[in-house]
Amino acid sequence: MPVLAASGLSKSFGAIEVLSNIALDLKAGEVHAIIGENGAGKSTLMKILAGHLQPSRGTLAIDGEPVHFSGPVDAEHRGIVLVHQEILLAPHLTVAQNIFLGREIRRGPMVDDRAMNQEAARAVRELGAEIAPTRVVERLSIAQRQLVQIARALAVPHRVVIFDEPTASLTPVETEALLKVITAIRAKGTAVLYISHRLNEVKAIADRVTVLRDGKWIATRPAAELQPIDMAQLMVGRDMANLYPAKASAEASAAVAEEPLLAVEHFNVPGFATDVSFGLEAGEILGFAGLVGAGRTELFEGLLGLRSGSGSVRLDGRPVHFREPRQAMEAGIVYLSEDRKGKGLLLAQDLRTNLTLAALDRFASGAFIDKAREWSALNQAFQDFDIRARSKTLLAGQLSGGNQQKLLLAKMMLLEPRIVVIDEPTRGIDIGTKEQIYRFIAALAARGKGVIVISSEMQELIGVCHRILVMRGGQIAGEVSGDAMTEAEIVVHATGVSREEARAQI
Amino acid sequence: AAFAADTKTIAVSIPAADHGWTGGVVYHAQQEAKALEARYPGLKVIVKTSPDGASQANALEDLTTQGINALVVLPHNSDELTDPIRQVKGKGVFITVVDRALRDPIQDLYVAGNNPGLGTVSAAFVKEKLGGKGDIVVIRGLPIVIDEQRVSAFNEGLKGSEVKVIDSQFGNWSRDDAFKVMQDFLTKHPKIDAVWCQDDDMAVGVLEAIKQAGRTDIKFVLGGAGMKDMVKKVMDGDATIPADVLYPPAMVAVAMDLTAAGLFDKLPVRGSYILDATLVTKDNAKEFYYPDSPF
Amino acid sequence: MSGELAPTKAASRFQDFDLRAIAPFAALAVLMVLGYFVNARFIDLDNLTNVLARSAFIATIAVGATFVITAGGLDLSVGSMAALVSGVMILFLNKAMIGDGYMLLATGMVLALLLGGLCGAANGLGVTAGRLEPFIVTLGTMAIFRSLLIWLADGGSIAMKSMELRADYRPVYFGTILGLPFPVWVIIAVAVIGAFLLYRTTFGRHVMAVGSNEDVARYSGISVGRVRMLTYIIQGLCVAIAVLVYVPRLGSTTSTTGLGWELQAITAVVVGGTALRGGVGRIWGTICGALILEVISNIMVLSNFVSEYLVGAVQGAIIIIAMLVQRSLARRN
Amino acid sequence: MSGELAPTKAASRFQDFDLRAIAPFAALAVLMVLGYFVNARFIDLDNLTNVLARSAFIATIAVGATFVITAGGLDLSVGSMAALVSGVMILFLNKAMIGDGYMLLATGMVLALLLGGLCGAANGLGVTAGRLEPFIVTLGTMAIFRSLLIWLADGGSIAMKSMELRADYRPVYFGTILGLPFPVWVIIAVAVIGAFLLYRTTFGRHVMAVGSNEDVARYSGISVGRVRMLTYIIQGLCVAIAVLVYVPRLGSTTSTTGLGWELQAITAVVVGGTALRGGVGRIWGTICGALILEVISNIMVLSNFVSEYLVGAVQGAIIIIAMLVQRSLARRN
Ligand SMILES: Nc1ncnc2c1ncn2[C@@H]1O[C@H](COP(=O)(O)OP(=O)(O)OP(=O)(O)O)[C@@H](O)[C@H]1O
Ligand SMILES: Nc1ncnc2c1ncn2[C@@H]1O[C@H](COP(=O)(O)OP(=O)(O)OP(=O)(O)O)[C@@H](O)[C@H]1O
Ligand SMILES: [Mg+2]
Ligand SMILES: [Mg+2]
């Protein structure tokens, strides 16, 4: 008897049907993965299962009994919890306050903060992270927020846990810890629904895999029967050959330039990065690896005038100092934030407004915005970046997570930059689109642009970069290139454990 | 309707009841409206209040559109309302101005208390009562023309004597603000002989502050306007309130009455009718005590 | 951050926008019908033009407020600012030694606009350079502007002295062009320019972006401080324009001039469908909001049912009901 | 939204919280020193107790406002509500036929609390059931409450008639316990209860959550409407408590009672470090904010430098400067 079963589920937003006739059953003690392209309807399905949305048609059943959820709280009472793809936490409250929100531990009429802080610290530690329970969520990095969100979900008594891309913003270390946790709760008889675009992960943890495409059910198979490449094929509906494009040598395209395109020396971002020096050649793809909190994001925010920082920065040999991001953009350097909801897109505005926001001057004659040009740019962006939305008049917040990421990419590329800093470029992006983005990055470099990729996915860095700098505790801990670009080597630099030390500890 | 020719409308435009005195004006206007309608069949009296000068100008426009025969207006501010009233006059409406003189005397009838008079009478009383010598504090109203007229006349009246105004502040014609200002004056000045606060509402707050501080140096408090509680105190011989200076809100009723008389009884009422800023003392207080008025 | 993630009906944004934008106009229409039943003279042409002309002050100021609020700000100082600007303008007209009346008036007007812009810039500076809550900054300048006026007026009032000048200036409030009172043309001009700025220019887009999410705006290379600053300057200019129409009406300024206009302007903006949290601005809705307020107070004067003491209560109730009607219309969709 | 996102050192939350929370107190201390230099009598015990006692109304109301604002709301009606509640209470005391003075007073007080809670509930209903912007709802009720009071008072004032009753009631404002005026004890009690509610109970936690992110609160099983409603009721109760202390002071209510208290209360809250956008509330900061406002106006009267016309300007400037000092303190960290 399945713990949770859905049959004939459909969901329409207005005239747009995003799910049609989905059937799904979930057994106790299994990890059931859902995979599909961006916009396939995975998150929508999960929201229906967890009571956040009502299905337009179809029924749900728990232990064979038909149920109707009046809301997420109702679903939670019946043991079904959802870890959202988006971060859903109260930004002004602390980690512990968030984890226990709505079900505070009390002593008499009072909240027992001491107990909650202890419990919260324990819950977070179980996920392999160290976050002070008294920190305000507003001040956490995206990865940390994601962990808090997971801890929050697991703190409720549960029979079914739904993870919607929990690892998108996590580094390998935390991912590892999370997978362990999932294995542990599975062992206790919990049913787990698991969405991820990281097919290796799916392969490693899932018992069964369900594939969705364009809102339709395609297949449900035992994971053992499927290799990642087969999964990709099922998702996309065509053959997937090479994920990563062939690397052109950076030197070839950099050619004769004497000065590096960008030279950074002794750069400091107070509190986050100290004494960072590196250079970027034209045509080069430079990777930045590191653990969560290594300070990569802040380093580049400092360099581009998004936060205060000091040091020498030379562009084409000329010293520059950006006090505002506008100046950096005018100099041809753009930064794509890792936080697409908080810093990348205006969720309550439409797609066109979002797309042209940073490069609006290009769409204006005088001060007058040419809407027709904006529309054609949007059409172009839909093509170039394969943005999947049933309508072009949606608000940005109504796009699926992956498609938001693509929109953000399209938005910053409109600036036609000379140097692009992309922070977590493929977070939440399906494998088919990833390939497109990698090709896009390679094409940029081939055209002589400098590209900096910050990523927590080491495979990705290794696959696309010419050279990788590894950061640890706000400093550059090492550089790997050529054949030395292996996961092992990067981890050694990122964690600061030398091979000898590692051996000695054992 | 039977005597269509006899149907007449008087519009009364006055400030909204935003403090004690204007509250009194609204009360008397409404009472008088009822009384007049009862007295003159065929008379319709419309009373409208406005919170500030600009909205009063609006109200005048709106009243005129309704078709009126006479307007009784107590302007928020003479400077601001002269032109709007001129507009109304231009439609052939009989104009009665109450209390605050317009910049140009375009009205047909003027009924007023006497603001400078209130200052002068108060100054004379203070001088006399203090024997021509002493330190006093002044609590002013709101920074508008009426206040300015009263205060200048008061200062003028003190000239040549040794009565010195050692401090003055705005109390906004509010009991609460006057209470605060007085508390602070008491802290600031170790010796105060008298307080002039030109308004009985503020006097209430002043008295309470003095009572709390237990100070005995203050010989008296002089308010103004003729609020019934204060007149009662004068009548009862309260030493701190030896007198009051009249500035009766009922003047609006007088104006309405005269206007109606002019319209219906064809009495000659054009001209000016200035009410004295009468000094109320223990001797004459009985005449000015109206226990039923809300003010 | 809220709302976005909530399940919304999948009405296309366009339809949605439409009905929301129309709701204030529907509320206005209902009020007009009510007005007619209260007093048939309500729909007299004279009355309607009066109401229109009068709403010019608040409407103009509220257009400025729409910019400030759309960018996520707030300006409580507009009423005091209007008083100060008109006071200074009249003092200038009284003192200046420019021969020709029209030249003098023109100079006075330019001065008013400059001063308005400057006052707005002062607010903007507090919010951007000082990084203070707009509420606090403009509450402070509200007190400062009014105090300065009272000081200039020596506690009394400031009136235009020259009668000829008054006569020259009068048409700016009382004159008509093509049958419409001049102030109505001012409303139209201000609204058209405002709508153009907000909906058609890069600046307007930036205003919405800043109000929607400041971080996103910053990361998109918009200089948030500059945009904020400009909205406050626009607010100052709008106040000055309102003053230009206000002065010929009453020819004087007192310490109570403009008292409470800030709340009226904000109310007009909100009634017009602009959310106080920023990100969305509706210029035409704002104009409609200003008209609604003016119509309500007109109806109050024209009606004879309500005790004078209770006028405020009825007015308050009508505003709430009008908003409820609007909301239910917008939700119906 | 600004400020928080500015680069800050990765200080632990605790330290961080500390300096921000202390900033208003630092500003108050600076003001007190200033006060001493302006007039040495400033630090007279009498003066300080006066100031403390006077701040009781705004402080009490502002504690309520802290709840409303923390939950992301706003209440403009508090001043009018205070006037209405005190008016009704006095009318009751004048008319009721309860023999014993103290019994009568106690009944009157209970009535005031009930009425305050009811008025608050009316606001809450408009915001939750009516789903209107708090600004509009409370602007409407502000007009309604005041109008009702003026109507009850027949445009004039409502005063306690019985002199014995007044004498019995007087100590509630003028009395002292252990050398501290009674109103000061009221402030302390209200603040302690408020702080307990906001920081130590689940309700307080939910208030912050609702103000921080409504959707998250809803998904966490918090009934957002109930929490909002309760904050408005608490605001109403706080207003009623302020009224209990206000009535014995002058024994009367007029149409100007409570005018402008809403802005003062909100200012106290903001000066105390609570952000208007919700999510964070600082009860003790609010109390400090109320004291700051009262101290500034006290210093103004005690000083001899400032023309009475310019008092407002100086007051406004001081508030802005105090906030700048606070901000730079908080940023220094
Ligand atoms: N509120 C909404 N209104 C209209 N369309 C919506 C809404 N929410 C989601 N959609 C649409 O539904 C489709 C499915 O979205 P969903 O978020 O379920 O995709 P997903 O499979 O989770 O994709 P991703 O991998 O990118 O997260 C998308 O086309 C999206 O644009
Ligand atoms: N506004 C802030 N105030 C204080 N601390 C912050 C703030 N934002 C982030 N931090 C802290 O700074 C540290 C570095 O942040 P972050 O994790 O974003 O670095 P990163 O190198 O970009 O990591 P990654 O990209 O892997 O997430 C973290 O410990 C985070 O909690
Ligand atoms: Mg998704
Ligand atoms: Mg990062």
Envelope shape of chain B: elongated
Oligomer: heterotetramer
- Give the radius of gyration of chain C: 20 Å
First-to-last CA distance of chain C: 23 Å
Q: How many beta-strand segments of chain C?
A: 4
How many distinct beta strands of chain B? Answer: 12
- Provide the residue-averaged pLDDT of chain B: 86
Q: In order across it, which strands form the biggest sheet of chain B?
A: 2-1-3-4-5-11
Q: Percent of residues of chain C in helical segments?
A: over 70%
Give the integer mean of the pLDDT values of chain C: 87
Strand pairing plus helix content of chain C: what structural class?
Answer: mainly alpha
Give the helix proportion of chain B (percent range): 40-55%
- Largest beta sheet: strand ordering of chain C: 1-4
Please state roughly what percent of the residues of chain B sit in beta strands, choosing from under 5%, 5-15%, 15-25%, 25-35%, 35-45% or over 45%.
15-25%
C-alpha geometry of chain C = globular
Could you explain how this protein is built, in words?
Chain A: It is found in: Cell membrane. Chain A: It is a peripheral membrane protein. Chain A: It comes from Labrys okinawensis. The complex is a heterotetramer, with 1 copy of chain A (506 residues), 1 copy of chain B (295 residues) and 2 copies of chain C (333 residues). By secondary structure, chain A is an alpha/beta fold. Among the domains of chain A are: 4-236, P-loop containing nucleotide triphosphate hydrolases (Rossmann fold); 345-416, no CATH class. Chain A has 19 helices and 24 strands. In chain A, the strands form 6 sheets. Chain A has a 6-stranded mixed beta sheet with strand order 6-9-10-3-11-12, sandwiched between helices. In chain B, the strands form 3 sheets. In chain B, strands 2-1-3-4-5-11 form a 6-stranded parallel beta sheet, sandwiched between helices. A 4-stranded parallel beta sheet of chain B has the order 7-6-8-9, with helices on both faces. In chain B, strands 10-12 form a two-stranded antiparallel sheet. In chain B, helix 1 links the parallel strand 1 and strand 2 (43-50). By secondary structure, chain C is mainly alpha-helical. Chain C has helices at residues 13-38, 45-54, 56-70, 78-95, 101-128, 134-152, 163-169, 171-174, 182-200, 202-212, 214-219, 224-250, 261-271, 283-302, 311-332; strands at residues 157-159, 176-177, 180-181, 252-254. In chain C, the strands form 2 sheets. Chain C has a two-stranded antiparallel sheet. In chain C, helix 3 (56-70) packs across helix 10 (202-212) and helix 3 (56-70) crosses helix 13. The radius of gyration of chain C is 20 Å and the shape is globular. The model of chain C is unreliable at 1-16 (pLDDT under 50). At the C-D interface, helix 6, helix 13 and helix 15 of C face helix 6, helix 13 and helix 15 of D. The complex binds adenosine-5'-triphosphate (2 copies) and magnesium ion (2 copies). One magnesium ion is lined by residues 42-43, 85, 164, 400-401 of chain A.
